[in-house]
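Q: What would this chain look like folded?
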Amino acid sequence: MFAKVIVDINIPTLDRLFDYIIPQEDIEILKIGMRVIVPFGFQTRLGYVIDITEESDKANKEIIEVLDVYPSIDLEQFKYIEYLKENNRSSLIDILETILPKEIFLKYYQQISIIGNVNEISQGLLEFLNLNGPTRYTRTLKEHRLEIDRLVRNNILKIEREYEQKAKIKYEDTITFNKDNNYGRISNYESLVNFVISNPGLTRAEIVSNDFSLSSVNTLIKNNAFKVTKTIANRDANFIDTKLIPAHILNKEQENAFKIIKKSFNTKDEFLLKGITGSGKTEVYMQLMKEVIKEEKNILYLVPEIALVAPLVQNLKSRFREKIVHYNSSLSSGERYDSYRSIINNEARIIVGTRSSVFLPINKLGLIIVDEEQDSSYSQVNTKVQYELIDILRIKANYFNAPIILGSATPKVATMYEALNKDIKLLELTKRATNQPLPKVEMVDMKEELKKGNSTIFSTILHNEINDRLNKNEQIILLYNRKGYSSFTMCRTCSYTPKCKNCDISLTYYKSSDDLRCSYCNYKEPNLKTCPSCNKETIRPIGLGIDQITEITKRTFPDAKVIQMDSNATSKKGSHEKIWLDFNNQKYDILVGTKMVSKGMDFPKVTLVGILMADLELKAPTYLATEETYSLLTQMVGRSGRHQLGTSVIQGYDLDNYAIRSVKTNYEDFYKEAIFQRQITKYAPFYEVSQLLIKNKSYLAAYQDALRIKKELEKDFEIVLGPSEPIIKFIKNEYRFIITIKDKKINVKKVYKIIDYENKDSNVEYYNNPTLI
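A: My prediction, written as structure tokens:
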């Protein structure tokens, strides 16, 4: 017997399976998905068994060691591997690194615990097992693997996987009462002893926090009245404030949605829960989650941004006593490791995560919730391995027979099209759960403000509305979706503009660090005081970034307490949570932020939202610009007046665009225009769209390769546009050309074949359903 193994070396020429002989003693044990140690050249490497076959004319080396009792890659994850391999040019190792948590790629072990009748275990195996706790699975148990496998299937033994990499299991000393102690003065510590008997398994610190003396605890330990045991500590990421939030009575629309979705349990049905902002979609989710938990199944709850995790988990913990974990990149390696252990050991009932959590191996999955389904962060693009979240979720739903709920106030145009054409079941919530009316929306043309002599960033209406709310002790949110302090710097004397030395782009100015940075290659340099072209000290910031908006706001409203929320302000662990909690507790009057303030947060005292430069997103070179603009503005407007009458002021220079006009009317008006535009311009959902990005240090070589590839693509696909230069034609010292493909159905394998055959020297990247290059 032979195993086909992928070795953990990420080199393009080694992106293939290598055949190894399976040792005789491992033939009955080895399964697809297990990890093995194999000889590779002069090294020994970690590998993954992808297939097992009876014949091979290539294998000449034996597997050194099988590391697993159970496969590390299960059947569910193999389905993702198959799908991603079919739809990407990526190496198999890149795909594995996308699907599998980092923890699985490093040293790990499995441990065995006795959970059944000891008499069922042979004496030969029993002498290796710890009767009072788990036993680490090591080479000494190798000859007993068949028996271990049988005993696990018969519920005599239990296998748990433990990983040791960047994060390791954290142990802590816990204390219990030893009833067999002989300490003669124990009566002097009666209250402490009674407390420990009633609360076994606490740490020293936890006991001391209940007003007991540390010296008393240590005395009872020293005299064997208390036993100290090492137990696994759970580094659960605790949140600052968890208030009890009672369940609400569902209104008629919510009740209808609840009943319909509940009937779909144990099916792979898909629902679009379209509800206006504040309509109570989260309450519907929670009541459904309660029913799923009754069935002893688990829930995957996805949100688009890390900033939404803390308020959501706080809300969930106030309603559910079951174990809730969240898994995302903001956690420390130890916290992420503990969350992963809870999931694979089937301890977590509710898993909250961002996009990458879709690949987590969740047992007994009963419901999948995707909040804010319209968000572009659910698409993984511009990376080695690309995918749409919904495609992976459909594989997951099919595997577990679990329904999917896509929740949104502003669904993606393609999702709404599917819902109206019965591929997805549409459920609508048209009223706010609080019975508050939607906020009044004011549109302000800033060209007219300029004519009246107002050159500030605040229109007269918005300025007056802010003062009014400050006088009433109400709160305001201001949106400006641009990072940094200013778009760029320029010399007022000679027009010199500092540019990235690697890219064809101006450097963005960050006042907090007083430096200039490239948004594409992370190049940075100190801010210039003197122009290197004319030697004049006339270099000034041009254009506005969120930092400058905050500065101007503080200057304009000096008595207001202002806080900023953007990617820089939230870079430290826990900073997302602290900002929204402080604002919720009215420590600040005005919250200034980028698009991360537009979703998911419910601030009762916010009665005014101001949107500065509402047409900013329309300038993006993507057919999704109108959809993203409408969604951002509508979500932002919905932050206002959720518990009392509210107003939203939308400012801009191009307010006639239907994406902005429709914010004042309804989604249906936007959708009718958007779907018409998509049909005549041949974009999704009517056509699939792909792009090729051809890059080369030589301008001519990049163009020649692009032209060759285009000519071949035209033989197989309906529309092939380009090669054309993108807006930024030079990044990281490479010239760039784009080819765009449109067709009813794009066969990606054909595209890959043409790229590999026609490309000579350039680096070619393929983007399926691109949003922006």
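The mean pLDDT is 88.
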